[in-house]
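Give me the fold.
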Amino acid sequence: MTTYANKDGILLREKLNELDKRVTPAGYDIMRAETRYDQHELLGIGRRNLIINGDMRIAQRSTSENGLTTQAYTTVDRFGYNMHNNGSCQRTDSQESSGGPPGFPYSKKMLFTSTQTTNSDSRNQIRYMVEGYDMGGLAWGTDRAKDVTISFWAKSNVTGYHAFSAINQSETHSFVTDYSIPTKDEWHHIKITIPGPNVASWNDNEAIGIRLAWDLGSGPNFAVSAGQRNMWLSGWYYRTSRSVFPALVANGYLQLTGVQLEIGREATPFEHRPIGQELRLCRRYYETSFWPYNITNFASSMDYYDAIQFRQTATTNDVKTLINWMETKRNNPNVTWYNASSGAAGTLYVITSGSGTNVPVNSTPGVTPNYNPYINTNGNISDGATVYLHYAAYAEL
């Protein structure tokens, strides 16, 4: 005999609401997603953070530089500096290795040891350049432009509203906002959502995709009014009318860590990537043959026989090095050669018949994103000599 059993249907939504832990709005979004692609986007699977070295762990150049008066990449990789028409302003740029917020032992600190004289077109910011290849999925400049959220930890001894901006590569369109640091010398976690712009042109190649800037004291030509905050504007702007100026305060500083830029309107927990992976990402833009020693003291920390070395097999103008970069560069890098004995830039240490000499580098012909085939020394290295050198290859945005 066959027995049949019937059971009334249930409403899944009601049953979920009966659970002790209810489904959140984000959970409902995932349930409503029509495709795996949509679920992937909502979950943020894969590399979420478009920022490289956002936890400030890697500083291939140096951990501290004092008395700086020009714009440059000086300490923490990928986080540079923009300075223009600031009078006698000087700064100390450092990678701090203690005192960070929980989970972030390293941070970047910009301290002003000599204050800025502000002019109408002064510029003063910590900057990060997102490569165009890394922002291809944002679809910015189209009607499908995606919102992004940037989150970071910030600390300063200057309280008030600090300015942050995002600008396209040609500096024709800007998004400017500000964030509050209400108490001195304490870490604050900041979250800013940037609406995806359907205007302007945005690179999707190896050039600058997005300019991100934490303002430190730019002039009134770069300021927007209160009613222009938090929106995309035509023009080149860095700050709001109420923003503070750390560069105008004696020993004023701004300190950052935990920087994350991700698709969507929510700030998810920081993506801590393995140190080896993060170092490889940094080396697309800059690498040295002597890291973790920095440029100013590697010669006193390493003997010349720890350097790159090869034997010259002919007396020619072009010395064949065939040095492969550790990572493919964004484009053809600028290469600085260092004497492996003295640490001096622009010379090589050469031993011929037991005697060491310093030979100037004339040029670097044939450099590519993948390797450097030759160094031109005007024939000053003889057949049979042994060459010792270090290098730094620079391909920053």
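The chain has three domains: 21-45, 64-274, 288-394.
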